Amino acid sequence: MKRIMRKLKRSNLLARYSYYFLLLVYLGCYIYFVKSLIPLKGVENGLRIIFIIFFLVWFVFYAFYNLINLLIRKYKGLLITSIVTIIFEILFIFSSYFINVIYNGLNKMTDISVDSYTSYLIKKKDQEFNDSSVIGRISSDVDVLGHELTDEIISEHNLKNEIKEFDDYFDLAYTLYEDKVNAIFVPSNYISLFSGSEGLENIANDVEIIYQYTKTSESESLEGSNKDFSEPLTFLLMGVDSTIDGLNPKAGFNGDTLMLISFNPKTLDTLMVSVPRDTYVPIVCNNNRYAKINSSAAYGSDCVIDTVSNLLDVNIDYYVKINFKGVVKLVEALGGVEVDVEAPTYNGSAYDGKMCEQNSDRQFGSHLICLNPGFQTLNGEQALAYSRNRHLYINGDLDRIRHQQQVVEAIAKKLLNFSTFADFKKVFDAISSNIATNMSTDKVLSGYNVVKDMALNALNGEEFVNVHKATLETYSLPVYLPNSGNYTSAQGYYVDSLNDVKKAINVVLGKEKEEDIKTFNFSVNTPYEVTPAGKNLRKEKSLELMPNLIGSNVIKAQEFCDSHNITLNIEHVDVGEAHYNADVAPGLIGDQDVVIGTLLNNVTTLTVYIPNTSSSSSNIKDPDKDENDDKNEETDENSQEDKNDLGNFNLF
Predict the structure, then answer these.
(1) Which of 367, 451, 487, 573 would bridge with 577, disulfide CB 3.0–4.6 Å?
(2) pLDDT, tens digit, for every residue of 136-158?
(3) CATH (domain of 134)
(4) Looking at 198, 218, 238, which one is the last position of a domain?
(5) How many CA atoms lie within 13 A of 28 on its CB side?
């Protein structure tokens, strides 16, 4: 050993210290590189092992080969192998950095170790709040934001006020606006939750915060399934229409965008179905009380998942929660996306035929984003504005859903078109900071091979992925809310449409076989298009409302009750008694105890009131009058009395 050391000391000093330095740097870079590769489970396992072994062998070779070169003082081989070693070290540094950017970004999306919840007590700016004020809140005691944290506010500020409880957040908000309560407890995202609803658009300016309470705790992760990308999967995409970047994975949010995505890695088939925000369904976490499906989002992600799963009869493997404010950054990082902007179909003259919407900060005036119709490249603000707008389209939220799907498809097509690593990092940063999922990093990485297959398809000129759309057909359902006495503009769905959508989901997931089309009709003058699952199927309605039976005879009322399994009670009333109606002829129904528009699911008995006599013959309704005139008169009366014009519920 001493002899070797003496020979080394006789070698060139620069060569010797370069040898020592490169050995140490290589070893450090190699360890950093290996530590970066090890977590990538399922990503080119064989290739990773080959790399680890090859670069370890090179280290051993470089150490012994150049030790000999130094001993015999031959420096040409040392120079050549040192250059190669430096190249390897640079490769280690850049590849490890690239891998860590991806891995840390994925961890950021799946890191939900801490939750922060905030609840507010708010009032209208023109209202006073004092000890006699009535406070409204959500009745469900499992609602952290709407009920649990409110107890903390009550205790902290020693509030002795009367508390009225409501089943629905929108019922709660409308009650405040109609001064039936003086203040309400709401989650911190109340502005984005309510501002998309009719009559509540200006809530940010109409109310002010009285008290607030924030609670931070360790998160109980919303468990997904054990499946990875080797099996068919279902994802629930939940949109958070916020005005800030980032999001809390579990906290309540607005549920304006709910999209179920079913994906089969073997066929590369993807089915997207959006559930309209106003669809009236049982909210699972609220004791299955019926409400608009977007209200489930106020209770957190788990409630949304359970509610959508119950509606579509499908096990949802994972959720993906995306803050649409991040769409601006993502689209900008992609250099824009190509979208065919649909021309406004409702009140199109308002902006000279342009599609105009608030900017990402919900600002009007000079900040308004306006687009001409037609195929074009949209920047981030424009893409978000087009995705948000529903007031300029005849089908409202249904048209907005189509536009959101357009933007999602356009983004997907550009996601793999990167020219530099800097471009990739910008896109990945935009995604990772505005997406949360309960899919573990390891399971996300299991999709590597699927993405590789997609990329190969794209390079070969084939479809990147086979995207199919399904449509859940809905109808107007103005439901009466008994707690507040208001009506909410909900939507029911058609059962046959829903069943067709369910079948399409199962076909993509491989649970059912697609039926072969053996015959079809076509015209040479009309391009053939495949009808999306659920489209144009409108036979059986999911829900019915209590109609206006006033002016009808008892026989027809009995037929209605028999067909809906409702017990009919008949009471005769005289002049001056409650429920007496002088505007109908004796023997016809003058009043009913169930309010028009009440959900029939909640009705088991119906009492109708028959006037015995009329105090004024001029007011008596003539049974022989033309039925259409009769309905028109009734509709006119109801439109004067009720802003919702619920006279159109008279079935008879």
Answers:
(1) 573
(2) 998 877 666 677 788 889 999 99
(3) 3.40.190.10
(4) 218
(5) 9
